[in-house]
Input
Amino acid sequence: MTQKTNNHLRRLVLAAVLLALGLVLPFLTGQIPEIGSMLSPLHIPVLICGFVCGWPYGLAVGAILPIMRSLIFVMPPMMAAIPMAFEMAVYGLMTGLMYRFLPKKMPYLYVSLVTAMLAGRVVWGLARYFIAGLQNTTFTFAAFLAGAFTDAIPGIICHLILVPMVVIALRKAKLMPNV
Output
């Protein structure tokens, strides 16, 4: 087996594991009723996938995960899962692209993560606005700020702590394919 084939297979397996983790992680955080959903547990495996597997895998896992979870477990509801799919696809795309092109140092890991989170939230807001228009409802700028930032503060903090720790641990353990 060539090195290129081996890396592709490793990325595919890691992406599948992260997709499976995304399906079950909300069951764990849901045990904390006060902040369980505010931790945005679906986002964690997608952000990690972009870093670890690269942008094509991160984009695919991000686009598939919320829809798949909605179809299997009915959570999130489909009308919430659709804009989440766009948001999370951007997370996987941006973390993968930025990690590939920026230096592999801690500050740039955070630059990649924060940029991906901001871009994903903007895309989520645009998707929510578009869906609201299709449903003849409104999605105001205040609702965008609340949904993307104010209500998401516990998740943002969790992601800023957990995702870099996991990426660094995987890198030190030499478990990251050459991205």
Q: What stands out?
A: The mean pLDDT is 92.
